[in-house]
Amino acid sequence: MLSSYHSSNNHMRSMSLLCCGNTSDGQLGLGGIAEENVRSLTLVESTKNFLKIRQIACGRHHSVMLLDDGSVFSCGNNDFYQLGHDGIKRKPRLIESFVGIHVISVACGDAHCVALTNDGHLFSWGSNVYGQLGVERMNVVAKARYPRIQEINLANIVQIACGSNHSLALESTDGVLHAWGLNDHGQLGIGTRESFIGPTTVNKLMGIPICQLAAGASHSLVLTPSGTVFGWGKNMFGQIGQNEQRDILYPSLVKLLRTQKVIRLACGEDFSVAVTATGGLFTFGAGTYGQLGHGNQNSELFPKQVMELMGSVVLDVACGRCHTLAITENKLYAFGLNTSGQLGLLNVKHTTSIPLPIPIEKQPRKVFAGADFSFVLCSEPNGDDDGGGDNKAITVPSFPVKHLSLSFVRHLINEEPEHLYDFVETVMTSLCCLNGSFLQSGNDRFGVTERHSCINMDEAMETFLLLSDYCTAHPKVESIMVRSVEVSLIPSLRSSLIDIEFARVYLILPWCHIFSFSKYYRNIVVPFTLCLSDQNSTTWEFLESWWSCLAVRHLNRILKVFKQMACFFIDNLMNEHGWYGQNRNSFPVIAIKSALDVLSHLNKVNVKVRKIPFSSFYIDDLEKKINLRDDFLQTMNEDKQCSNRFLFCHYPFILNAVAKSILFQVNVAVEMVIAQVREYFFISVSRNNIIEDTFKQLIVATSYDLKRPLKVQFVGEDADDLGGLKKEFFMLIFQELFNPKYGMFVEYEESRYTWFAHYNFEEPQTYEYVGILCGMTIYNNVIAALPFPLALYKKLLNEPVTLEDLKELSPTEGRCLEEMLDYDDDDFESVFGVNFQISLPCLDKVETVELKPGGADINVTKANRQEYVDLYVDYKLNQMVLHQFEAFKKGFNRVVAGCIIPMFQPLELMECIIGNQQYDWVAFEKGTQYRGEYWRQDPTIVLFWEVFHEMSLEQKKKFLLFVTGSDRVPFQGMDQIKMIIQPCFGGEEYYPVAHTCFNLIDLPKYKSKEILAKKLLEAIEHNQGFTVV
């Protein structure tokens, strides 16, 4: 009744117009008939010559018909000049004022009309009691040409809608929504009840892409291309889908329609309807006369699907004051009030709350409704009209506002480059245009959720790359883009969002090439970053979830933009004044903090999805640019009141191995000062009784003792521990502890990883000692060969373990669980045949444990398989070894607990203890030092490096083990090894000798490459681990 929207593509050619309902004022266009009410569908004879009816807009007692050629006809009540011509007219009459003007859409309120022309201009006529015409007084020029029809001061309008006494209009250039007229229930959406004579902007919807408008008597609805619905105004009956029976003064999300793929809205007086892409019909609001179609006369506060029409595909819908019309594939349904015959159902006297088919011989194509009357555009069954055959296609509304798409930008560049300038300026100025750009096709464009932004990020990437290439050859386009973003787009960003669709700009814009140039940082990238970092927790939950679904190329782009910006300002500060002379509220510091805040969210996502190497977040050489030691000390000393101040150590993910090793050394030094440590922690052990001897000394050791530098003495040996004995001690004791004869740990043969045994008889304190020893390796900078998987280090850092962790420990077991999750056939239970319990080997028998109470009697099905897998993983990696791990963790934390360990990623902590295999043999050679007669170009040294670089990887690893006592690379990198080569006495018959205490090798002066290779390979092949001299 009170809203009017039909796509300009739906042209009704050569069709019959039928009508029914009240015609007391001639609104049906039937002429001077005696009846006030027409109770069955009747042909409107006066429109037979209207070959191309495009749309019919209906008011309370009048109708306006728009033809495909842009001409406008009207009939019905004319008390307020709402017909646009003189007199009461019972047959459609041409509105001569529009002759020569091409009208493409019309909308009617109770007694006013608005017309939209093909050049985006608006005209209005009729009642202006509440300012619903959008003009205060008649324009003198317009009056001379169009008596009583006035032009509204708006341009570039693409869509319109009218309520009883208010009007809405949408701009095509920037997507701005304008409203004017009566506002007693907040139907203008501006936050007050003040009525407006002229158009005013609905600011709350700025940045939200809108594709359709609809208006009821005193409420308004809009629809986005992704199917999101917002409503505002009167909500006494729930007509805007909010659980508050009061006026809503600002646009509010209709949450229950978010995932329904809505493509069409319509409004009655106090109710609303929504059509979905699958042809479903939802209604809500006043149901007093059954107009909601739910089989009762109740009002509905929330959208509810019309069950009677389930199974049918609703193609079009129209709402009168208290009735509803709906077209399905081959039927026309009506429900609601019928006192004036507006339903076209002769057997319904008053109301029907169930959708009933209207008897009709022709094929219904489109429906329109006024207060108490209805129109149906029909064709002959299987007729040869534009609609053709039965109705089957559901029309999905396009986004009528200018927006970016790869195909259109490519078209402009190739075919109409002269129009590209204006297009870029328009789109890059408007948040709405950008947020409506790059929408996915088909059903993927609907339903914005935490996992689905509806944006085709690959299209966004390719479009901006295309524009970047074009801007290289045409700098003027880049200048326009920069000015648009800087002057208009950036100032329109805000931290308070009405809906998450607004946040799409934060996904899209980083691909714009201007974000890569430092010259645009101050005025564009930094303000953008500040607004992004300032988003509330709800927005960040969505953004993080969207990021987690992105391909690696898009995550890398986000990382590059913000990391590059942070590095730029860090480098500039270093070059100008140095870091600690800076005011922490200065622009560069604020820029760095905002960039790192954004990167912290990206890192949080990456910790979960692990798509980017964590090393990609490192800011290299940061330890050379700022005083990391002082930064870390401030972090250690800060209290909760100062925790918001900016410190680099608040962002540990940007710190590389070198930086973190520096911080670890600072942490050790501080703890040793606190403990007043002045000497070593000595351990004296027998090689034959190393575990018992060690544990006896750990029992009496204090936490302070454990933080002292370790020195080891083997009983009966005189060697002084300069580092080599310590290495050998850790190697021997861990070899013994992980020996299967003790039963403390179990090795998984397939992965060669070790896990805690669940059936051992050791006291928990034994595991605590193992944890202490692991912690001591870090404190003493020793690489230990611990065969634990990454899961151990995740647990030490309180990170959850997953199926991937079980798969690493036990590959076959993990793959079986993955196959269970991926199985799609219906014979799931017969194929897997498992229940909620787990079988475990326990010495010489098998033990069965329930994963949940009563698990033995609960079958695993497709519905509950995820729960089963989660419980299985939790039991194997957590519950089964709970006491053993907690004791281990307690011991570990006795040594290294503090603010430094949480700064590590699990893999970093793992590499800190066991090293890594990121070999850089060039760096190894470069870092080598020479003593005595040897130097880099000495003939023996030249031969040595020739032989070394010709070795296989396994031989090089054995050489590393020979020299350092470990075949793995220190956490800080290979350049930390610092091997020393010195000459030794003896001839070529002698072998090289390694001093692992100092990473030193005695190399005889070989003169032959063959002899050097032979002696060196024999030395490393027959060395049991390393030689202590």
UniProtKB/TrEMBL annotation:
Residues annotated as catalytic: 997 (glycyl thioester intermediate)
BP term (GO), one: ubiquitin-dependent protein catabolic process
GO terms for MF: ubiquitin protein ligase activity
First and last residue of the signal peptide: none
UniProt keyword list: Cytoplasm, Repeat, Transferase, Ubl conjugation pathway
Keyword Repeat: yes
HECT domain: residues covered: 702-1029
Localization: Cytoplasm
Sequence ranges of the RCC repeats: 15-69, 70-119, 120-173, 175-226, 227-278, 279-330, 330-380
GO cellular component: cytoplasm
Gene3D superfamilies per UniProt: Hect, E3 ligase catalytic domain (3.30.2160.10), Hect, E3 ligase catalytic domains (3.90.1750.10), Regulator of chromosome condensation 1/beta-lactamase-inhibitor protein II (2.130.10.30)
Name the record gives this protein: Putative E3 ubiquitin-protein ligase HERC4
Species of provenance: Trichinella spiralis (Trichina worm)
Name of the coding gene: Herc4
